[in-house]
Specification:
Among the domains are: about 200 residues, Rossmann fold (3-Layer(aba) Sandwich); about 230 residues, Rossmann fold, CATH 3.40.50.300; about 200 residues, no CATH class; about 160 residues, Sec63 N-terminal domain-like fold. The chain is an alpha/beta fold. β23 and β24 form a beta hairpin. About 40% of the residues lie in helices and about 10% in strands. The longest helix has 29 residues. It is built from 41 helices and 27 strands. The strands form six sheets. Strands 5-13-6-12-11-7-10-8-9 form a nine-stranded mixed sheet. Strands 15-14-22-19-16-18-17 form a seven-stranded mixed sheet, with helices on both faces. Strands 26-25-24-23-27 form a five-stranded antiparallel sheet. This is SKI2 subunit of superkiller complex. Pfam families: DEAD, DSHCT, Helicase_C, MTR4-like_stalk, MTR4_beta-barrel, Ski2_N. One of its GO terms (molecular function) is RNA helicase activity.
Length: about 1200
Amino acid sequence: SEKIHVPPVGPADLPLSLLELGCSGRFELITHPVPGQPLPPQSTLPHGLPPTSLNLETEVEKQFLRDPAWLPIHDTDFVFQKFLKLAQRKVDVDSLLSCSPSALPSGLSVVRDPTTGMLLDFTEVLLENTGLSAKNSLSLQRQPGPPSESLRGSNTNYPFLPGGMEELSLDEIRKKSELEEEIDFEKDLLKVPPGFKVGMDFTSKEIKIAKPEVNLMSLLSEVEDSADLQREEEEKDEEQKKEKASNVLRTNSLEDLGIKVIQLDKIQSPEEKKKWAIPVDITSPCDDFYKRIPNPAFKWPFELDVFQKQAILRLEAHDSVFVAAHTSAGKTVVAEYAIALSQKHMTRTIYTSPIKALSNQKFRDFKTTFKDVGLLTGDVQLSPESACLIMTTEILRSMLYNGSEVIRDLEWVIFDEVHYINDAERGVVWEEVLIMLPDHVSIILLSATVPNALEFSEWIGRIKKKHIYVISTMKRPVPLEHHLYTGNSTKTQKEMFLLVDAAGNFLTKGYGFTVLCSRRCQEGDRSVWLALLHFLSQRQQTPVVAFTFSRARCDDNARSLESMDLTTSVEKAEIHSFFQKSLSRLRGGDRQLPQILLMRDLLKRGVAVHHSGILPILKEVIEMLFSRGLVKVLFATETFAMGVNMPARTVVFDSIRKHDGTGFRNLLPGEYIQMAGRAGRRGLDATGTVIILCKAGVHEMADLHAMMMGKPTILQSQFRLTYTMILNLLRVEALRVTDMMKRSFSESHRNAQEHEKRISQLRQTLSSLPPLDPEGQLSDLLPYYHTVAELRVTNESLQKAIVESVNGLKALSVGRVLVVNNKQHLNALGVILQVSSDAVNRTFTALIICEKGNEEGKGEPDAASPHLYNTALFIPEGPCSHTVQKLKLQDISAITVKTLKVIPDRIIDNYNKRQQPRFRHEPPGQAISTATQELLRLAEANPGGLATLDPVNDLQLKSVDVVEGSMRLRLLQDSLKSFTCIHSPTFAEQFARVKERMSVQEELDRLLFLVSDQSLTLLPEYHQRIKVLQSLQYIDSGGAVQLKGRVACQISSHELLLTELLFENVMSPLAPEESAALLSCLVFTQKTQVEPHLTSTLKESIERVLSVARRIGELQRECGIPQTAEEFVGQFKFGLTEVVYCWARGMPFAEIALLTDIQEGTVVRCIQRLDEVLKEVRQAARIVGDSVLGSKMERASLAIRRDIVFTASLYTH
């Protein structure tokens, strides 16, 4: 085609052009083109406009032919060299050395005209914290990591700084030390503040120079505080000062300042004692709720309860709350409001629950309410970018340790079912998460009613340094009535006996009736159920949840109801269509599993079974049908009550005893309440009915009362050290394991701040006491004091041993003569009248002789303890009087060999009578005066001291401690006589001074010990575990984490065994299916009777695993961990190896179920958890660089992820 001919520019062509301004989409008309340039640039962007249509050829060429990353340049063969010439590529050795560019140290900042806002200039500003990254800093200022790691984080990342930890980064420490060097508190001080005429004089000697113990930060804060308070005063004083300036003495101002600071301390101290947990009063109605929150983030179709309104007011103020209420009281409202708030604030919320089933359910509930909801559990990850994430606590823990980016945007973390912290196995995870959460995250804790909610919240408040508002309500929206049911004789079939009424009163009358009726009937299990269910369905009391504490009994009970049909034909059709639709996702073979067929028949008749042995998909079908009211009778185990929020009209207890892994016991009140609380649906039933079956006779009334009326279990710390936790914290220099231990709930009694304050007070007291410099006769005063102190301690421990022994108590019986020493008496004789029965703080009521006039103990004896070297008995100087007192153990300094005949009741009655004012002056009764005379006679006969009972020879206490103690006591008593200081005339006052000083010192030492790490209960175990990790080379001697340790960090349970298996290549000879089968020992926990048939390689591998486990077990034992090697090896059970092996090789589920006696549901659960283990091993293999093992794990994972085991949950669709 010919060229288009464009005429030259003529006068008609206007010199116009368009200029695009930046990327804003705005254009400007240019009318004066620059001469010499035919057309001006079309954009202010430096590179012109972006290309509109890309040329594919050049793209491909650029990417595949010219991109050095794509082709190996360093190949040597001939063809390749030729190609290089053709492509004109240079060999570039430097390209092999990659180095990430360092962060820009500065950025550009705009200078604007302050009036018009026009751009005037750009200036360069230095940036702070540019070097911070997830690999070296805990700060939220650090750069975000790569997007691929934003969700789960990476195990080389640092976590974000946990809230409430005042850890400093290395830079800050460095900065502080530089500052400290610059400030010298003695010389070159600036004296006159700018703008002031008069400054301070620092020569005054009264006020001490700041001691090095004083923390700079605390000094600063004190100065700031005082400055705030004084600012107003200063403004007032300013004019006066100007007048007086000439005659102000320079020292005055300093003293004023000193005085003011002291006053400040007085002002602050009441606040410092503030409680972190604040109970919220929910009795008063919350009237101004709608005024205070005119447009709430979320509205409900019903009026909220007071406790919900109070909680929402706290959430609006961005405070943390702990809500303890019964199951159906509506705690979810609080969670929903928090999610709505975070959506309004464009932040994120994490909702954690202890159980996967509960997570799935909540996901469905919240998804319908909020749309923008994601789910993260071990095997499922749905829309992780959502504003509200639902996850199990373990995943949140690993996100925190791995510094996930999600934490930055986090506003709330909601912990549901917090009472799960009592779980021995997993409770520690909750504590770790609570300790590791950063400061900007607020916490919402939802729990069943617990007695110590305040104490628990106080702990969280203290470690996070923020207030926790505690809202607990005992009110049930639907009150419960508890009944007993015995019926299978025709007479009692129609009767239930009310035991606890809706108002919560225990009726003993109902119990009596039950006992009468139950005498007549003793029949089979089955008829009881039939009779009861007939009775309940006639009275319209369905749906019923029947709690049974064994899976076998659940199944048997359900099967025994063959003759029973509780559904109408309409309901049958609905059940059938729902069942078919739900199972349509299963493969044909899986739909014919015996369990599914059996359950289908039961469900049609309105009966179902729910326990861990049921297939997960069936469980979900049953839950959904139950919540629609189509399942009339559900036989369930305790797990149903734990999470699944499915209320019924009636709850029946098959029995009140359960097996808890160690033995049979009665239900605890907490468990009973949790299960019974499933009765009564809000808005549907007036009261919920709870029925306890009495099949083998009626339960003891005391047991029933304890269970129904008792307090629920208190929250207790299950904190323990795990290797993963230790390694995760050792990875990060700034976090120490001891900090984690100090903050655990088990150490919550340590109140470090209080102790610190007390320590500084004691230090001040010590420095104000006069110094000790005993000389001359008094030169051995200090050793004397220490001897006396040791004597006292030895004596007390001996006394304790005596009282705790049988013979000792026989000796300390009525009529025994004692030597008494306390505030009032000094080596006075007394005689025992009564011994209290309380074994813990045993007291002895005794008659003691004393001076006339000192009955009440007016005369204070010397603070010195002369009685310790002086055994001379007290003999009254004037007339002898007496007193009757309750003595504690420490008041009795010796048990003599003498006894007296006394009449205790008469003595005590007479003495008590004479204590009343009107009988004050009566002479003492016959019994008293005889006893007093006897004691006086004894004292006068043996002024040097009475013979005492020797604990070893007389009382026959032969334990090592007692024998050593009494020998030591004799030695100490003898040595006291040789001290010279006791003969000094000023001995008493000098000794008092020593005593005062030493008691302060001792308390100080005790507190310093309590604040130090040495007093942690778990510290010895921590050192033992560190020893184990060092000898296995997970960490080096300096505590730095090695490669093995990095691998173990990835693994959540049984980390030592798995890491050792990895490094010993136990899995390299195995096929993918076999390695999956082998690893099943880590997730399978039950016993099985069936002996698995295995391939020879698998048998060998099992032997290797056991030997590795034995080695670790023995090593732990050597390092002092109390678990025996047998116990350690016993955790790993290989009962499912064959099942998993066959499953991975593609055998259908129906055949697998026949290989073992383990129930289908348990098998499925195990294989699902196995998949999580395989994922972890795959990650670990990647760290080690073992790509073969990684791909093998991936293949194993694919082999087991199929069919019924990995059918997606119904809740997530």
